[in-house]
């Protein structure tokens, strides 16, 4: 294999891609004392000059100063032969080229054909579900592991849900977990245009997602003790975490549901390609401790005024995204129609550095499973609150997660499924991903366990 790379970052010159490159440099192994499995790295994209500038930027922001183990590779997603060539050079592609509904499928297809592994930072449910429908079987056969949403969408939600669920010790069982996401910063909180474009195109094509779901066999649903939670008010005041909150239509809840469906179909999780007996035991014990529950995500703020702003931006994206002229307007003038939330040139480095997130998981359930089955409408009597917390979501937390997923593949491939299209939680749940994230600045904490008054 000429110029082979352990990992290739495709779309490395993009706004998110360059932060992924910077994170990768932290783990690039060039000394005999390092134990990192990442020894050679490829930066791929359609413009080699931009890729070289990205590398220069990343090196100037890093202690790593030896670019010899890094290759620049020209690859255009509209040129299948360049993708075939790319896949022949690596074991794993980290795809940062979005919107994924526009650019993702040729990359997935090339990886499946070549039998190489593929992770991305997609937050687009239709893309993820379509890739599963079209490529899962072939990916299983060819030994290609394809995992979307290996970024802030949706790993904190997946691992955060599981972390909360594991705190329910028998005979206690959860019924629902509501996540409250709070974004904090001394400066403005800003997202790059690529994320806005992906969201707007998702809204424009919402009918296609419905049609895709109707055309697919129904997935297994987990049995959850007690009745499903009611919808509740549009704006909620969640006193326990001190936030006002409104429903966030992100991919997180959908991704968590896909993991729970896969778990229902495979109660011991997914077998690794050549697992040790010890790992089989560990995997089974892990999934035994995860109890299914209803799951939703809300965007929260201490200020009610901010919630009204969130609603206004959501309504703008929803309304404008559903009309041709509206899409043109919001994508032409993103700052105006999102009240400064999204910018064509993205956030400044200072804005990225100053932002943080907290995601509170408020789990409610029963002190005993019997209580849930006693009467049809029995109310939860127990509440467990946990929290996941970390740096800025899109350009710091996302690269941290993507890189740790990649390092797990490089060091523990035998413990992971041979191939297939999966959400991240069902694959990485039983690995050491949570510990790795904790070592890299993303914390998981138990906040409280309380009895609820009736
Ligand atoms: N999961 C998460 O939490 C999370 C976080 C951040 C971003 N994202 C997602 O990541 C995606 C990228 O966002 P972004 O803000 O980084 O966008 P961006 O700055 O526009 O980057 C897009 C990248 O795609 C490349 N590209 C476009 N067309 C290509 C082609 N034909 N062949 C090869 N490369 C091509 C661009 O190359 P050039 O540099 O040559 O233009 C650029 O590198 C979006 O879908 C966004 O929603 C997700």
What does it look like?
This is Saccharopine dehydrogenase NADP binding domain-containing protein. Belongs to the saccharopine dehydrogenase family. InterPro entries: NAD(P)-bd_dom_sf, Saccharopine_DH-like_oxidrdct, Sacchrp_dh_NADP-bd. Pfam families: Sacchrp_dh_NADP. This protein has 454 residues and is of the alpha/beta class. The protein folds into 2 domains: 143 residues, 3-Layer(aba) Sandwich (Rossmann fold), CATH 3.40.50; 250 residues. Helix content is 44%, strand content 21%. The strands form 3 sheets. The chain has a 7-stranded parallel β-sheet with strand order 3-2-1-4-5-6-15, sandwiched between helices. The protein has a 7-stranded mixed β-sheet with strand order 9-10-11-7-13-14-16. Strand 5, helix 6 and strand 6 form a beta-alpha-beta unit. Helix 8 packs across helix 12 and helix 12 packs across helix 13. It is globular and about 65 Å long. The termini are far apart. The structure holds NADP nicotinamide-adenine-dinucleotide phosphate. NADP nicotinamide-adenine-dinucleotide phosphate (NAP) binds next to helix 1, helix 4, helix 8 and helix 17.
